Amino acid sequence: MRTVLRAALLCLLLPACRPDQVEHLSNTKELAVEAENWQVKRIMPADLLRATRWAGDSLTQTADRELRRVLTEKLQEGGLAAALPYCRPETFPQVDSLAKSMQASLRRVSTRPRNPTAQAELTPAELVPTDTTRRVARLSAEEFTYQRPLVLTDALCLRCHGTVGQDITPADYALIKKQYAQDQATGYKVGDAMGVWRVSLKRPGVAEFYTMKTRKVMKKRKPLF
What we know:
Layout: H1 2-13, H2 28-37, H3 45-83, H4 93-101, E1 104-109, E2 135-138, E3 143-151, H5 158-161, H6 170-179, E4 193-202, H7 203-214
Antiparallel strand pairs: 1-4, 2-3, 3-4
Domain Tll0287-like: 96-200
Pfam family, one: Tll0287-like
Protein name: Tll0287-like domain-containing protein
């Protein structure tokens, strides 16, 4: 009796499963990638150091880019007097927002700073003016550091950091000395290392950056027609 009932039930279900009534998913590859992205991944110590470099590059390059943009605008608006208060890229909203998302803090230090609070003893190896010089380290289970040279790459910066009487007018230098009485940050030329960027990062921020950096992103498919 049970066999007969099962056969009857199967006959009733078969019409509901006809091939022409099955809706096939068109984005199965995208779904598979997304499912893989959300899987818990084991991040190794080497991965965290790699992510520290990525995060440090991203943060300091954003700061450099924003500094050039802001200083260009301010110099056009009102010369050095208007630009001088804005030579602090670590305080810019976009840079600050990115730093918070990475649980990071950044600062610039130099052997010849404009602001005495940025004074630091640096070795010649730390002042090699190449973009490939990076130093990353893990100080503890929860803290990472990143460092790279701060290089004068834009002639725009000579308006404040070049040679007095050549790149910097006496009037502009008087403004600099009025605000920074102990200024040492002049006499540079394009290509010189002026100091270093130093970034401190927390492990959760580094791990999150690694996860986002390695997440797969599907390319948009071109329409067939």
